[in-house]
Amino acid sequence: MTLRVLSYNVHRWGDDRTALARVVRACAPDVMLVQEAPTWFGTRRKRRAMAASFGLRYVAASARNAILVADGIDLVGIRSRRIWRPFVRRRLDFIATQLPGGAVGSVLRVGTSRVAVVVCHLGLHPRGRIHELAQVLDLCRSFNTPYLLAGDLNEEPDGPIWKHLAEEGLTDLGDGPTFNSTNPHKRIDAAQISPTLNGRLLPIPATPDDLAAASDHLPLLIELNGDGTTSCG
Does the keyword Hydrolase apply (predicted)? Predict the structure, then answer.
């Protein structure tokens, strides 16, 4: 039995919502791991409306990360973390704080197996991302089961974050650029699986025009296989 997981930075649900809905519905995910979910005034109302436009249900969030699920998918043991972030120098002599960080995850059953899915969005401060990742990995390990970690890392594969993930024993499922959607030239979004978990990336069944209009990032569609994962009690 397989599970389809879509990881997607939806750019605050602020671009072409109709195109975004077409992309997500074409992917037909069982679980959607959202980065840059809409926030500020009416946060939950907006997220529920966004999920409904995809044919999904909004169930959990931390900061601007959210988990949506299809009908018939049940999450257990939802856990979230607020992620500490430092100040960041954005440009010239102007100093600004980053928006709060977070990560959220849960456990699902895939056949007779238990699999955790965790979504995060790392910040803009290069050294700060190392500390953020440590907090995210603590959350991943807390589920005590094989897991998928997906999200926007804000760093390309030659950076220390990716090296740390490899040292953790995770397998990188990606292979192509994810940003920006109109002219993909940077790979800053990732899907990584822990040992004993089987998974692969699937092609995105959407048109280039819809992908460019839907968000500034490209999505990652992951297929997880229950074979070889931890047995349910």
Answer: yes
